[in-house]
Amino acid sequence: MARYTDAVCKLCRREGENLFLKGERCFGPKCAIERRNYPPGMHGQQNTYRRKTSDFGLQLREKQKARRIYGVLERQFRKYFEDAQRTPGLTGENLLQTLERRLDNVIYRLGFADSRAQARQLVNHGHVEVNGRRVDIPSALVSEGDVISVGDSSRKKTYFKDLEETIGTRSVPSRLSVDINQLSGTVTMLPERGEIETTVNEQLIVEYYSR
């Protein structure tokens, strides 16, 4: 499975904002945006003062930002966009809804992981069940009514024992409900645009792929 393996802090610096890719580190003084808020590379500080970005540049950056937030590579991201085009409704909203329905994203939103990358690892290692069946595919899409839980054998591990003590302090979207004692969550409804916590401007992504 192809995946990004370079330093993720470079991605935040390239997009000029905190994409929250490293969990707790992103909220502290070690955050790359706090320390070096300019693009990576030897000409990064010079690029900060470059001329105004073109419309195409803005569209490209927004598409890249969305890909990096959700941890999706280009080929799969384009497939999501093409599926969103074929679905009734607004293409941009359909795209974001699909990204939010990814299992790794739902694990992250439930507070079971500090970042989507960590959530992907939990899924890949077989710690997660959907409706009582183990699922090890991070890109699997959940539906309304699905119950996502930590497997019984996995709950004995130190990570999940510690998680039981802290999960209640994490903010969870209203479209999800969490059972702290059972380390499980339920998708009570599919996400609507106003409930999706992201800085992505989906209209720019639609414009990028519609050129």
Portion of residues in beta strands equals 5-15%
Q: Tally the helices: what do you get?
A: 10
Name the helix and strand elements from N-terminus to C-terminus, one letter apiece.
HHHHHHHHEEEHEEH
How far from one another are the termini?
30 Å
Q: Summarize this, please?
A:
The protein contains 10 helices and 5 strands. It has 211 residues and is of the alpha+beta class.
Textual characterization of the structure:
A hairpin with a 2-residue loop joins strand 1 and strand 2. The chain contains ten helices and five strands, in the order ααααααααβββαββα. The protein is an alpha+beta fold and 211 residues long. The radius of gyration is 18 Å and the shape is globular. The longest helix is centred in the N-terminal third of the chain and has 16 residues, at 55-70. 42% of the residues lie in helices and 8% in strands. The chain has a five-stranded antiparallel β-sheet, covered by helices on one side. Helix 7 crosses helix 8. The protein has helices at residues 9-15, 32-35, 44-47, 55-70, 74-86, 91-101, 103-110, 116-124, 158-166, 202-209; strands at residues 128-130, 133-134, 147-150, 176-179, 184-187.
